[in-house]
Amino acid sequence: MEGKKVLRALISVGLLVALITVIFVSQGHDPNNPHAAIPKEEWLSGEKGHGFAVLNNQNPQEQCYECHIKQDLGGKAYCQSCHDQSSVNYNLPD
């Protein structure tokens, strides 16, 4: 009987620690930003950053562009200015 109480107490403490760990870790995650785990500079200019994602994404204008507009991360002029600097010839949808 005493062994069952100890086991229950250990399980309860373990679950409480796991819950606290999940809450603590999730505080640094922005659910609206799928890139939140990657530092901004690495995302913008790293070898597995924006350019890599765009080149390997089958449909970036539908999967990325609309979300960027909703998040107010820059519209067509903002994206196009970067494309012009990089000599990328691409016309974004209206």
UniProtKB/TrEMBL annotation:
InterPro entries for the chain: Multihaem_cyt_sf (IPR036280)
Protein name: Uncharacterized protein
